[in-house]
Amino acid sequence: MLHQQAGEQLVRHLCSVLPQIATQLARHFELGRGFARASQHVIQAGDNATKLYANASAEHLRTRLVCEKLPLEAQPETLVTLYQKRGAVTWR
């Protein structure tokens, strides 16, 4: 419950820098059992890593299995998004 509240407070007070703190938000929501919000922030964190050409980090973030904890009806869409973004990472 504390992690969920911490995530909510971060969203509320740091809304201008949410993309930059996506990894931390994902972790707070995951530990707070807010798996839908955690998966959204995992996707954003992977996007951030890709923009920085941190491809290994992006792949790791997008491979996290947060979506396994989502309700069954939400899992396919989240998995498709994760795999599309993971497949788009260019290795050099």
What does this entry look like structurally?
The structure is a single chain. This protein is mainly α and 92 residues long. The chain has one domain. The protein is built from 5 helices and no strands. Helix 1 packs antiparallel against helix 2 (22-31) and helix 3 packs parallel to helix 5 (75-87). The longest helix is centred in the middle third of the chain and has 17 residues, at 35-51.
Mean pLDDT: 78
Tell me the quaternary state.
Answer: single chain
DSSP helix fraction: 55-70%
Overall body shape: flat
Strand segment count: 0
Q: What structural class do you assign from the helix and strand content?
A: mainly alpha
Strand content: under 5%
- As a whole number of angstroms, the C-alpha radius of gyration is 13 Å
Taken in chain order, the helices and strands follow as HHHHH
Unreliable segments of 5+ consecutive residues: none
Number of helical segments with 4 or more residues: 5
Instruction: State the domain count.
Output: 1
Instruction: Give the CA-CA distance, first to last residue.
Output: 41 Å
Biggest sheet character: none
